[in-house]
What does this fold into?
Amino acid sequence: MSNEKNMPDAKVMVDIFQKMALIKASDERFLSVIKSGRIAAPYYSPRGQEAIPAALAVNLNQDDYWITIYRGVHDQLAKGVPLRDLWAEYAGRMEGSCKGKGGPMHITHPESGVMVTTGIVGSGIPIANGLGWASQLNGDGRVTICCFGDGASNIGAFHEGLNLASLWKLPVIFVCQNNLFGEHTAYANSTPVKQISDRAAAYGMVGVNVDGNDPVAMWGVAQEAVARARAGEGPTLIEAMTFRFNGHNLGDTGECIPKEQYDAAVKRDPFPRYRTRLIADGIANEDELAAIESQISADLDDAVEFALAGEEATSDELLYDVYAEKIKG
Amino acid sequence: MSSSPEKMITGSQATLMALDEAMAADEKVIVLGEDVADREGGGVFKATKGLSTKYGDQRVRSTPISEQAIVGAAVGAAIAGMKPVAEIMLMNFITVAMDQIVNHAAKIRFMSGGRTGVPLTIRTTTGAGAGTGGQHSDMLEAWLAHTPGLKVVVPSNPIDQKGLLHSCIMDEDPCIFVENTLLMRTRGPAPEPGHITPIGKANVVREGEDVTVISYGRPMSDVKAVADKLKEEGLSVEVIDLRTIVPLDEETVLNSVAKTKRAVIVHEAVKSFGVGAEVATRINEELFGQLKAPVVRVASKNTPVPFAKSLENAFLWSAAEIEVAIRTTLN
It folds into this structure.
């Protein structure tokens, strides 16, 4: 689906790189800090899926909405959740985006448009429709991105949600990040259709299959879907083909992934390929990219230090936010 | 209580009155559900009839038969600042949407550390007595009351139905508003325009000295009738209509039982693991040493709701059971 005539300009291509580098470096840091025991948290690595949210996010405004899932830290970073807020939430501190009450699977940061992160597969889809309906009513021109995995296309919420979105022509973009595994079950063992984007036809919706490891192709598909949504022409189902290198969650031994499949995926790893491409195409030089990576590393140092120095909630905090009014102990 | 004695309306009309006033007062109030728009007849109970014509088909939207999609859309719209009122036609159908209700509507405020809230209302109708059998009649309020983050409201008459629904719609938190199938068609005194009943405030509908009967929803009429009958014998029964299950007006209940020293709890939902058990426990925890008799529950039997009239009557509570429970407690 890459449209060579409609390439992102050099600044956008570097912006995409910056987001991908941020996601990758943050992932590596999460793994090392959690393994070191300094933060105890469940972790669902997005390593390998960086290009998808990075290329989506550069097509969006800050006030556009985004809904994601437990494997969503790449989406949150791409949309702009600050590192300090994110890391402090993983550390369970009051300075976290959700005061430590949500944790990794429920990151919420409305200032950057991240409205819901759900731990229930497929559940974000019906909620995205509500954000889209509100935008329709308000006439605010916002679009809602709703990310989920290939596993989510087999749950009932997908059917109900996509049907309603198409019926109401909602400004929602459904992004299936197909990493070829739902938990530990391979795509072919859970899904009888060749590709999930084909399912869009059942809802009278535009469905697009794209190489989610190619940031430029992903950018083009995202641009078209965003334009369609903003024009009031309804939702799009994007299936972005990708791979998750670190299994389902931290601790997954990866035994369900055949070695040949893994090795082939390494060759399509989006990050090193894109980095090489930017230099080869003269978009940026090594020093410029290294400077971006260096800044990210420093920002991560700061975020980790900030998170670990954060305040632990007192038990009284439990009584807030159950309802708008504090409950009795 | 504000009422027009000369005017009588049904539960459905009370709901419509609340929706109409709320939509007129606040353009953030929006309605969705199966058949709710006028093109589809304004709802199976006609409780939304006229609203789409008056407020437009963008604010009042009929949906496919997709309960997850209905509640999910309400959750999303609420997060974005709207005040959605979702109709789940019958309470058994909330089972299809429980993920959205329990995992999302109820928890999003907490899980986001208060960054987002979900000010939605789910109206749903239910209750046995109309021969609708096992999947159209269940009273499931205890399930929802067991989930922190939800408010659960069950009106017993048109004045409260109007006033409580208004409060639910304007509340900052998710409210489950349980209407009764038979009461939707039963006339009662009408509220004045603008009438509001606060959430969390029980109603002492009969003052008495000898025993407290605590109830809510459709059994309230039997409870009042039994109280009036016993009054003729010189027995003084205090009657409390809870109106709201969550938050429970513990203060009104405990003050009353501290006075009467005896309590009977009556509800339509099946007896086991229900609201009655919770209320009884709170009374026991606070007033055990003062009670003159064990707290007694009257409720529907622990079976699915049956179809046959004879079985349905056997399943439901009865005025006779309420009377026996009160007399037992007094002896």
Q: What stands out?
A: Residues 278 and 284 of chain A are 6 Å apart (CA to CA). Chain A has a mean pLDDT of 96.
